[in-house]
Amino acid sequence: MGFPAARMGDPTMHGGAIIIGFPTVLIGSMPAARILDMHVCPMTNVVVPHVGGPILKGSFTVLIGMFPAARMLDNAMCLGPPDMIAMGMPTVLIGG
């Protein structure tokens, strides 16, 4: 079973969003997200901002521009606790 495909603009569990996608592969009119594409994170631990970082996990079987496709529930790096992609395109499921 697959998970919804992640795209630029999709939200993360910490309240941020994916800010970079692969411009020539569109999913629901938005660039597809892959591992190493970046997200932002607005959360803070007291004074230290989480900032955000690259998506760390993706599909082992679906590549977009030579990188694994990102999906809902895949992990993203954050200076605080790890972040996770909260939502993707529900009509496009990516397995692996």
Automatic annotation (TrEMBL):
Keyword match Membrane: yes
TM region(s), chain numbering: 12-33
Pfam families noted in UniProt: PAAR_motif
Keyword set, alphabetical order: Membrane, Transmembrane, Transmembrane helix
CDD domains: PAAR_5
Protein name: PAAR motif protein
